[in-house]
Amino acid sequence: DAKTTQPPSMDCAEGRAANLPCNHSTISGNEYVYWYRQIHSQGPQYIIHGLKNNETNEMASLIITEDRKSSTLILPHATLRDTAVYYCIVRVVGAQKLVFGQGTRLTINP
Amino acid sequence: GAVVSQHPSWVICKSGTSVKIECRSLDFQATTMFWYRQFPKQSLMLMATSNEGSKATYEQGVEKDKFLINHASLTLSTLTVTSAHPEDSSFYICSADPALEETQYFGPGTRLLVL
Predict the structure, then answer these.
(1) B68 by DSSP, 3-state: which?
(2) Which candidate in B60, B92, B106 is best for mutational testing of the A interface (most A CBs within 10 A)?
(3) pLDDT tens by residue, A80-89
(4) Which residues contact B58 (CB under 8 A, 6 or more apart)?
(5) How far is CA A93 from CA A87, A102, A108, in A?
(6) Which stretches of chain B score pLDDT less than 70?
């Protein structure tokens, strides 16, 4: 699986959009980009995933660059409950393993 | 999304005893489940892939005789930490893929403390 690079930490003000970047410059054509988050002392929570088109759901939006070498997770109106470690993971279509990197520790400030 | 549960949520045991952790998919069947371990301030590390009706596949460096995995049904996988020692104290998390979905769902985790 391709590796990802994320900033170790970010801060965002409550009510503002949180934009979390992820670099996956060695991604293959058959690899999806997945985002999970882990709130302290809980199991990871699925957020969103995509292959090449931008995706949006009730939690977030995923913007993937045209060359697919990077992506951005957008939490449109961050709340204090969005404070968590966010993991960007690439995964081959049909494969099952998820390999976690160090993620980005996002802190939402009041 | 699909729901995965774990039991117990936390356990304290004496060194040398064995501890069993259950992972259940509540509203879907899973031919494959996964077991992760997470130490404080670290990321999740995949320990093994649990296959229903067959032997688990362990990641490099994980002792299969110490971490026994049984996947007896399409909704239940168990992880038994045998002869637990203080260094086995960790947060153990399972996950599962519903069939025909591209998404893996995680349980809430089990915190193990070995005294």
Answers:
(1) strand
(2) B106
(3) 999 999 999 9
(4) B47, B48, B64, B67
(5) 18, 22, 33
(6) 1, 100
**Minimal-distance CA residue of chain B relative to A85:** B43
- B40 vs A45: CA distance, rounded Å: 18
pLDDT number for residue A2: 58
DSSP letter string, chain A? ----B--SEEEEETTSPEEEEEE-TT--TTEEEEEEEE-TTS--EEEEEESSS-EE-SS-EEEE-TTSSEEEEEETT--GGG-EEEEEEEEETT---------EEEEEE-
Over the stretch B8-36, which tens digit does the pLDDT of each residue have?
A: 999 999 999 999 999 999 999 988 899 99
Q: Tell me the shortest Cα–Cα distance from A11 to chain B, in angstroms.
A: 18
Query: Which residue does chain A place closest to B3, by CA atoms?
Result: A45
Over residues A25-49, the mean pLDDT reads: 94
Q: Does B7 touch chain A (CB under 8 A)?
A: no
Q: Count residue pairs from A and B with Cβ separation < 8 A.
A: 52
Q: Which two tokens stand for residue B67?
A: 């971490």
Q: Which of residues 15-44 of B touch A (CB under 8 A)?
A: 32, 34, 36, 43-44
Judged by CB atoms closer than 8 Å, whether chains meet at B34 and A93 is answered as no
Task: Say whether pLDDT at A94 is over 70.
Answer: no
